[in-house]
Amino acid sequence: MPDIIDETLSSHNETPEPVPEAGVFGQAVNAVGIVFAIGILASAGLLMYEVVMRYAFNAPTRWVHETVVFLSAIAFVYGGLYAAAIDKHIRVVIFYDRFSGGVRRVFDVLISLTCLVASVFFAWAAWLSVARAAWTPQGDFRLETSGSAWNPPYPGLLKIFLLVILILLAVQFAIFTVNYLRKKAR
């Protein structure tokens, strides 16, 4: 019985690995994910700092809330790319799991191709948002800011980051499409 418990606990503590079809790109996405995990921990630490400063010293900060929101937002955005690389994105499996290897391969190709097209369209929409958030109507580069007392350029940076991640997501789904096409049915 203790062996079963040890195996169960150890399987939940392992970091998910990208699927082979994700290629080297998926491995890189997986490796970079630790940066955003650390960002989430930093957010928690900053929130604790804010609580202490506000309630123990009556000296609230101007910058913690917006920084925590920004760090959490970029981690959330990166999470979509990460979930794709480890093949843990949302999939309706009620039929998929019943398919044979050959039919499943066809669906893998179609799903990856559909996700590629969707990612490209979302990247285009993100580009339209970045164009407004990063340049003035006169063409000067100036990032959109939050408008708060601290006024950091987090909204503009987040929009640029979203565009980059959507482009990378399109690349990941292109890799998936090619690798699923190459894969032989099991």
TrEMBL record:
GO terms for molecular function: transmembrane transporter activity. The keyword Protease does not apply. It is found in: Cell inner membrane. GO terms for cellular component: plasma membrane. Residues 45-173 form the Tripartite ATP-independent periplasmic transporters DctQ component domain. It is a multi-pass membrane protein. It comes from the Bacteria. The chain crosses the membrane at residues 28-48, 68-85, 106-127, 160-181. Keywords: Cell inner membrane, Cell membrane, Membrane, Transmembrane, Transmembrane helix, Transport. InterPro entries: DctQ (IPR055348), TRAP_DctQ (IPR007387). The keyword Transmembrane applies. Coiled coil: none annotated. Belongs to the TRAP transporter small permease family. Part of the tripartite ATP-independent periplasmic (TRAP) transport system. PANTHER family: 2,3-DIKETO-L-GULONATE TRAP TRANSPORTER SMALL PERMEASE PROTEIN YIAM (PTHR35011), SLL1102 PROTEIN (PTHR35011:SF4). The complex comprises the extracytoplasmic solute receptor protein and the two transmembrane proteins. This is TRAP transporter small permease protein. It comes from Salipiger aestuarii.
